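Below: protein 1.
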Amino acid sequence: MRVDRREFLALRAGQPAELSCEQLYMRFVDAEADGRTAQLFDRLAADLRAAGAVHLTDTAWLSRAELRSHLDGVLAAFEAAGGRVA
């Protein structure tokens, strides 16, 4: 499974990257079915390293506890490295 950054992050100069939680949920379900959940979140973490800040959109899609747990771990590491969650 190849995850393209454009599927997750919308990047605009001078603005926080936007992470669509709807798109993330869809990719999560696919990755879960393929047994590649860890790879999905590793790739997201790598993509976030290119951003200084991220804004989450469509957060209602984060109602699933396992998805939220994985994302919280990625965002905690992002913030610990100096990133900002808007």
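Below: protein 2.
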Amino acid sequence: MPVKAKKSVAVPNRPRKIGFKPLKIADAKGRVVLGPAIANQPVQVEESGVGEWTVRLVAAVPVKEAWLFKNPAALKRVHNGFQQAQHRAFAPDPRKGRDYPWLKDVDEENV
């Protein structure tokens, strides 16, 4: 019985369907639902033009820590410290090779 050769069939290029974004309508209070992917996350909304708005996910920074992001020199020092710690590049122990006689009197159980 002769074996038939398989023929490859080319699939014609079908025109892609033009995808329309679903229309969202603001409610009476001006709210628009963005969906579950954005639920319970802080966002920043900016008017970027007439009738145009930009919505960005943001991370909140505590007020006590905001100074660091406003001080580029301090932020760079923190980043450098993280890099050094990742590479285990620690400063030498300042206590090494020094004599601390007062340590003999410390009660270690109550420290």
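The mean pLDDT is 84.
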